[in-house]
Structures are given as C-alpha cells and as structure tokens.
Amino acid sequence: MALKAGDSIPKPDGEWIGAIRRHLLDWYDQNRRDLPWRKNKDPYRIWVSEIMLQQTRVDTVIPYYERFMAHFPTLKALAQADEEEVIKAWEGLGYYSRARNLHSAVKEVVEHYGGEVPSDPDAISRLKGVGPYTAGAILSIAFDRPVPAVDGNVLRVLSRWFALGEDISKVSTRRRMEELDRQLIPEERAGDFNQALMELGALVCTPQSPTCDTCPVRGECRARKEGIQEELPVKKKGKPPVPARVTFGWIRKGDRVLLHRRPSEGLLAGMWGLPTVDHPPEESSPGETLKQTLADQGLTVELGSILGEMEHIFSHRRWYVTLVEALCLGDGGSLPEDCRWVEESEVTAYALPNVYRKAVKIASETPEGIQGRLF
DNA sequence: AATTCGTGGAA
DNA sequence: TTTCCAAGAAT
C-alpha cells in the first residue's frame, strides 16, 4: 500500500530518474499545448500567467490573460497603471487580492530592481503574492533555474509515481514533495521539465480516471503497478460553503444608483458593489434591515418591490440573495466615503465582482413598469 | 495548522 | 443538486 506520513522520502535510483526525464520531456515536446504565455520566456509574461493560474483553470484564464496583456504589455505599463484600472482588467477572475498584490509587486520591481524581474530566489520570493510555487515556476520557466515548482498537478503526479499516501492538502507534504522533486529536475530544461510535470497532470494523470494507457511514464509509476492510481492522491475533504442570507439594494435616486465599497479586508475586500446587508431570519419583509442600515448612514429610502432572488457560491460561503429596490427620498447632504451615486450606464465602468454583476443585470433587465410600480 | 480568499465547469 | 475542484498565497 501507499507510503504514509513519516515514512522517509524514497531515493529514486539514477536509472529510473533518467527514464522519467527522457520519457516525460519527449512526451512534452510532442504534446505541449500552445498556450499564450508560452510564446516566449519574458519573465513578466510568465509571472502574470502564474498569478492568474492560481486556483484557476487554464481555459478560464486564457481570455483574461490575452486581455490583460493587451492592456499591460510590459511590466512598466502595469506598474504605471492605477490600481482601479488593474482591478477592472481583473474583473470576473476572482481572488482579487492577486491583482492588487501583483500590481504592488510590479511597482516594487520598478522601484528596487530597475524594472527587471529579479532572478534571485530570495528576492523573488519576497514579492507580494509570490509564494513557493510561483517563485519556482518563474525561476525555472523564465530563468532556467533547476528548482521545484510544486502545484496541485505535481503533488498528484508524484503521489502516484511514488505511491505516497500522505495528505497533499498539508503544507508539510508539499515541502517533502519539493525535496523529492528536486532530485528529479534536470540541470538542462528545468522549466520544460516542471511544465511537463504539470502538463501531464492536466492532460493524462488527471484527478479522476487518469488515462494511464497513454501515459509516457506508465512503466515507471508505482501506483499504476499496484493498481491504486484511482486512490491517490490522498486529500482531506474541504468543508461545504456556509449558507447565509443577504439583501442587495438597488437604490435609485433620479437616474442614479447607489454603489458601496466593501471593507478593505475580508470577502471581496475593497471591491465596489451594491449595498449589502445580512438578512436576519426574523426579518419578515425583506429590505427592512437594509433600510435601517441606510438610515443610520443618513440616507432615507422608501422600499420598493423585490427585483429578484439569486444564489451565489463562493469557495467557503453560499449567499442566498434577495435583490430589493428602493427609492432615495433625500440624504443629509453628505454621503459616506464608501458610497457613491452612479449613473446606471456608468455602473459598468466599475470593477464589480460577478455576484454583483449578476444582480445589476437582473435589476437592469427588470421592466421599468415593475420597478416603478410601487412608487 | 487551519482558514480565508472567487469563479465556473464537470462528474 | 451536490461535490470537487484548478498552474496557491496570506494570515
């Protein structure tokens, strides 16, 4: 059976390593996908791709990457941009702190490294948003440094090659895998080897139903030999998203709508959206809490009808949203810093997370007759 | 070490 | 519908 935690890291023999390297690289040369970040080895282009690809599928990233690189073709172009513009270019991709960290790190490179991405492991690891994987990926792919870049694919592939039953969701496991991987990486073509490992995980050595029959290293895989490839890797199950009821306000005043900026920490940190409040279970008529919250801010509104209901699932939270319209009757003359009246046609100029874009779409498509019905 | 950060696609 | 997840990092 598979090796457990605490077992010593296996020492693959030289002949096995040679076979792995040869078979994997030959396969990669024949099967590598023609992805937009593989046009050249510009460290900046590699960097952007690696940040976007964090926890995000290749197919999802491609259009965002093309658009982002068209907008910010060079590191300096990105460094000179306003954060607003950067976030707008990231709109819809999720994990928005990635964009903020990338922007911050790029400016750091301009300030302290003359605009050239550092090839020093310690320097690059200090950049915001660059963790162990991303540092290894940039170093190996852009600078040909023979260092590990262990992502989810590599964890899975190595778990199977060596029949390791250690929980890959643990940080300690990733560190051990890096040491294991370090022995496999060739001095030549280190970047290709790392990418080949990931490519194999993405195309052949998949989480479910790996196609071992087409695998270039099926002869070197211990899991396959023991017939346990479907049981590996071992991964602790995550918790399901916690459900919560929230109310969005579609609050109009003339031809304007109220937008609100979320707190700088937590879910959708610093992002603009519709006014959002918790919907207490004891609240019978939706919108009362919203109305009260706005009143506390000096905004008096008259509640209208429910424009729609929707469900949105984040990685760890599930929102059941009630979208309520309201008419602003007047304000104290001053608006909180985190609130803004925006013409309906200008709402799309803001970088809105998808959960709010969906709500705006619903509100905008609701016939005027219904919106105005209660007023 | 365990949580928290989005989103959309597939089984 | 639920579950899992996809080239992780920050806290």
Please provide a written account of the structure.
- The protein is built from 15 helices and 7 strands.
- The relative contact order is 0.11.
- The mean pLDDT is 94.
- The chain has 2 domains: 213 residues, Endonuclease III, domain 1; 130 residues, Nucleoside Triphosphate Pyrophosphohydrolase (Alpha-Beta Complex), CATH 3.90.79.
- The protein is elongated and about 80 Å long.
- Helix 8 crosses helix 11.
- Strands 1, 2, 3, 4, 5, 6 and 7 form a 7-stranded mixed beta sheet that branches.
- 42% of the residues lie in helices and 15% in strands.
- It starts with 13 loop residues before the first helix and ends with a helix.
- The protein is of the alpha+beta class.
- The structure holds a DNA duplex (11 and 11 nucleotides).
- This is Adenine DNA glycosylase.
- Belongs to the Nth/MutY family.
Provide the descriptors you would attach to this structure in a database record.
375 residues, alpha+beta, Endonuclease III, domain 1, Nucleoside Triphosphate Pyrophosphohydrolase, seven-stranded mixed beta sheet, 15 helices, elongated, DNA-binding, 8-oxo-7,8-dihydroguanine DNA N-glycosylase activity, glycosidase
Topology overview:
Elements: H1 14-31, H2 43-52, H3 58-71, H4 75-80, H5 83-90, H6 97-112, H7 121-125, H8 132-143, H9 152-161, H10 171-184, H11 190-203, H12 222-226, E1 242-253, E2 256-261, E3 272-273, E4 276-278, H13 288-296, E5 299-313, E6 317-331, E7 339-343, H14 354-365, H15 368-371
Parallel strand pairs: 1-6
Antiparallel strand pairs: 1-2, 1-4, 2-3, 2-7, 5-6
The structure holds a DNA duplex (11 and 11 nucleotides).
Domain HhH-GPD: 52-203
Pfam families: HHH, HhH-GPD, NUDIX_4
EC number: 3.2.2.31
